[in-house]
Amino acid sequence: MPSEPSGEARRLIARLRFRHLQLLVELQRGGSLRAAAAVLNLTQPALSKALGEVEASFGFALFTRSARGLATTPRGEIVVRGAAMLLQELAHLGAEASAEPAVTLLRIGAPPFVAQGYLPEVFARLVGEQARVRVQLMEERVPLLVQALLEGRLDALVTSYPTEMPEAAGQPLHYERLFDADFTVIAPPGHPLGRARRVDWPRLRRERWIMPAPTSMVRRMMDEVFRSAGLMAPVPVIESTSPVTNLRLVAAGLGLSAVPASTLDSAGASGVMRVRVHPPIPAGPVALIHRTGTDNPRLGLLREALGLPATV
After folding, report:
1. Whole-angstrom Cα distance, residue 12 to residue 297?
2. What is the spatial distance between Cα 51 and Cα 72, in angstroms, rounded to a whole number?
3. Which of 65, 157, 253, 283 is disulfide-compatible with 188, CB 3.0–4.6 A?
4. What percent of the chain has pLDDT over 90?
5. What is the Cα–Cα distance from 123 to 304, expressed in whole angstroms?
6. Using CA atoms, how far apart are residues 9 and 30, in angstroms rounded to an integer?
7. Residues 199 and 258: beta-carbon distance below 8 Å
8. Backbone angles phi, psi at 114, to 5 degrees
9. Cβ atoms within 10 A of the Cβ of 61, count?
10. Are residues 217 and 89 in contact, defined by beta-carbon separation less than 8 angstroms?
């Protein structure tokens, strides 16, 4: 049951309209009254008056004015972020209600290795034979997933995560650890390292490597493994974000790579060889992550499919 809005919330609900939210987003995006007026098909005086009404409703300035245009104040940054999220939720609501039949549309983000190795079983439980539940999956690198979550374009993430995660403006993120993902180094078929009983990181440093992009979680993890061994991480001969693609590239004899163990299990080893590295790659935590402070009934469906209680 949704909680009753506070007195401050009721005051804003009475004064603000969705057009005000769009105005704030366009002012930040364009950086000037003229740019926003062109997008919204309004005159600059009308836009300036509307902005004054919005700022009066909040009781403080949302933008600073200068010869170079408009810039959000710290409080304005929070308000505009919330406005963008509300507009995203309105668009989401329209997509759900206009479908035939009406559906619950879950927007989930996950890095490729989680999407490919873990989510198929989750989606089987989530969708099953319920035609009224649909899923939109965004497979991306973790930083881009977090940004989409903060902007309200996703309901939740099922993802690996860094030790320090950003927060939505004024709104922390909620984490529930699901499991630890194991990673393994793989070598092409017949590679001598695949037959060795124990391989250290200095020896691995001399090999050709296939790695994800520098901003990916797995790449950062590999950089840290080499750094812990007192080594600079090798420069990869190929960068590829998809663990399945990396497995195929290794199978083709193009170099070594590190992939989630689940990728080997789900995609098939394709003749690649596991390398017995010492010390091993540390396991990486995978969690359900969503924004706190929002009453999102879609999350209950996802939580149940993940084997968690329906509510936090």
Report:
1. 23
2. 12
3. 253
4. 30
5. 11
6. 28
7. no
8. -75, -40
9. 13
10. no
Q: Three-state DSSP class for 192?
A: helix
> What tens digit of pLDDT does each residue of 266-291 get?
655 568 999 999 999 999 899 999 98
For residues 283 and 183, the answer to whether their CB atoms sit within 8 Å is: yes
Can you read off the two tokens belonging to residue 238?
Answer: 């190929």
End-to-end, the C-alpha distance of the chain in Å comes to 14
How many residues are listed for the chain in this entry?
312
Residue ranges in the chain whose pLDDT is less than 50:
1-2, 168-169
Mind giving me the DSSP string for 63-123?
EEEETTEEEE-HHHHHHHHHHHHHHHHHHHHHHHHHSSS--EEEEEEE-HHHHHHTHHHHH
Q: Rounded to an integer, what is the distance from CA 51 to the centroid of its chain?
A: 32
